[in-house]
Amino acid sequence: MTKINIRKMQVNQEGTIASVKVGGELGRRIRDMGLVPGTFVKIQGRAPLYDPVALRVKGFTLTLRNNEADHIEVEIDG
Amino acid sequence: MNICVALGGNPNAGKTTLFNALTGSRQHVGNYPGVTVDRKEGRYVQNGHDMHIVDLPGTYSLTAYSVEEVVARDFLVNECPQVTINIVDASNLERNLYLTIQFLELGIPTCVALNMIDVARSRGIEVDHQKLTRLLGVPVIPIVARSGLGKQALMDAVARVAEAPRPQPLRVSYGRDLETAIQEMEPLISENAFLTALYPTRWIALKYLENDAQILEKGRSTDKAVSDQLEAVTRKVSAHIEETLETYPEAMIADHRYGFISSLLKQGILKECHDRNRLFLSDRIDKVLVNRFAGPLIMFGVLLALYQFVFTYSEVPVGWCESFFEWLADTISGQLADGLLKSLIVSGIIDGVGGVLGFVPLILFMFFGIAILEDSGYLARVAFMLDRVFQMFGLHGSSVMAYIVSGGIAGGCAVPGVMATRTLRSPKERIATLLTAPFMNCGAKLPVFALLIAAFFPAHQARMMFILTLISWSGALLAAKLLRLTVVKGPSTPFVMELPPYRLPTFRGLMIHTWERTWQYVKKAGTVILGISVLLWAAMTFPRMPDGQIETYAAQRSQIIAAAPSAVVAELEQAVGDNSLSADAARLKSELLVVQGRQSAEALRHSLAGRIGSTLEVVSRWAGFDWRTNIALLGGFAAKEVIVSTLGTAYSLGAVDVQGGDSLSARLVAEPGWRVLTAWSVIIFVMFYAPCFITVVCIARESSWRWGIFSMIFNTSLAFLLAVGIYQVGSALGY
């Protein structure tokens, strides 16, 4: 098990959220949308310029910018 | 029995569809007091219950994060609907129940509408709604909002909930640390009756732990002492949690809420017979539409198609509107004697109001097109693909829509463009887009550019037009950046956004969407515009020339007529069109027109607008504009098309219509004050100065009058600086 940042994840890579290290408005927004520790995520795709990133979470697709995703750490196999 | 019902839920859960299915045509749209979030209300009658239904803005949560959430929460608490219908997307249950839990924690009577059970079923998801009803303690009714299935059962349940006693607020367990803090806070709150008239005790404690700005502020102004104590408890537990667990109370609360939901779902509510990661149809479409290479190309194609559709197909109905107003003006002209009253009604009122109402078909087509893109889910993908580029200029991916509609592809219109910013959810990016969209080359600026290009750059007309489009885009983006660094400063709004699954829009939904937005335009813009157009008319009419001068011109005309042979005069009087005139009669006519033109130019110079134009020369000389250009630019505030016709009047050509600019081009080239440099300076000024007043009214309606006025001042100053820069540098270089 290794922890990596969403920015470094490849398309179609999967993992489980380990931590969301941000408070305030952004943190609240991220959590309200269901990105909490223990949630399974899969990188669905990236926009043409590699930013923002689209994630599959809890059965729906969510987008966020790379610099917002930087606060989220994901545990992956291998 | 009269029941007030609120309708709440996540965006894309099918709230609008259910609302339309329930209320049909019996609905009206307004704004929540003080904010620009739409408020829709309607009626539904069943079994003698008259239900008043209010559509809350779509939200993911009830924390005070966005305007929508604050509006939704305030409505639920302060206006106290008897029942709240919480619409939930059955195919996305876990995410949607997050809001449901918050409704229940707030202790408001709730009824859950489990929507899109057909979609869920097709994905292999089966929801046991009876079990969910038992676990949540509120009725859960399966429905399909699109077809109206389950509507009656839902409203029966609503009536039952309305008659039942108010439920106990739901208690979710938040773990030992937070529960200890809550136990410390609860007695403080209940003993002092601290905000308890409005909210449940436990809920207030939770909001303190969540650091909810709105509740904290309310608390401080209600009872400073209690509020301080509660904040102290919060600080203590925050410090403890941060030290031991490296997290925040609000994060723990969210974790526990999701934990509560997954424990609910694990009790056999969801039966999934398919792999979660099965490639749904939506994902397959996305593989193409958001593809790195094909995606942007398809997007440009789609935007171009939308643009073609709006501006090409609306041309015919816009033509009908124009003909109608021309007919009206002609008819009234025929009925009234020449004079001020006729001029006021025809030039002031009919032209002004006609200018606004003539747009209606265009606005209608525009909103129809946007509604398709929005309701189908494609607009969210456009924002996703373009966000990176727009983010560099402090804008949001969705801003592109407003730019393109406003004339990003030359020939649009800023009015629907400004109104298209509604699809932007982030307030700061929205203001920046709103203020810069009018920099685009709208259809009304084109005749002005066409005139000047034809006059001064006859060899490179197409290339010039393309260059002007590039200038307007760069200008708008750079100005947006400037605004985001100064007056609408602040970090960018998080781009945490849901990409909804693709959905076929319902025709009924499209119609309702289109109609309500168009009607708002007519209703709100109409009144103010009438006033301003009358005002501008007055400025260009009063004070009138002294009677002596009018008589001089009349005498000149009679002299010309007297000098001509009587047969020619008779021919001219009886003639209908231009083509049938003999050479003599045509010459007589043009001689008369010259006098007429000189008179109207003189009258314009004498009017208030003319005087302002002359006074402004002191300043406008820096940019190379003379008083006549000044009046034209002043008139351009009414509508940019007016610039060409006013230039025609001011350079005494009589009435010049937009198409007949040829002779005006020749006239301008011959005019000593005009050269290529002046043309550049005027073009740039026209591109960037104050938007036409219809646009200003729309900006004000979409934001506030403060921003409407700001846009006039900011744009005009910017345009003037640029024009002066061009003219001065150019002159110094010897052009």
TrEMBL record, chain A:
Cross-referenced Pfam families: FeoA (PF04023)
GO molecular function: transition metal ion binding
Coiled-coil stretches noted in the UniProt entry, renumbered to this chain: none
Domain of life according to the entry: Bacteria
Limits of the Ferrous iron transporter FeoA-like domain: 4-76
InterPro entries hit by this protein: Fe-transptr_FeoA-like, FeoA, FeoA_core_dom, Transcriptional_repressor_C
Keywords, in A-Z order: Iron
Protein name, entry field: Iron transporter FeoA
From TrEMBL, chain B:
Matching InterPro entries: Fe2_transport_prot-B, Fe2_transport_prot_B_C, FeoB_Cyto, FeoB_GTPase, G_FEOB_dom, Gate_dom, GTP-bd, P-loop_NTPase
CDD domains named in the record: FeoB (cd01879)
Parts of the chain that traverse the membrane: 293-313, 349-373, 393-419, 431-457, 463-483, 521-540, 677-700, 707-729
Signal peptide as annotated in the record: none
Membrane topology: Multi-pass membrane protein
Amino acids binding Mg(2+): 20-21, 23-24
Gene3D superfamilies recorded: 1.10.287.1770, P-loop containing nucleotide triphosphate hydrolases
Protein name, UniProt field: Ferrous iron transport protein B
Taxonomic source organism: Desulfosarcina ovata subsp. ovata
Gene: feoB_2
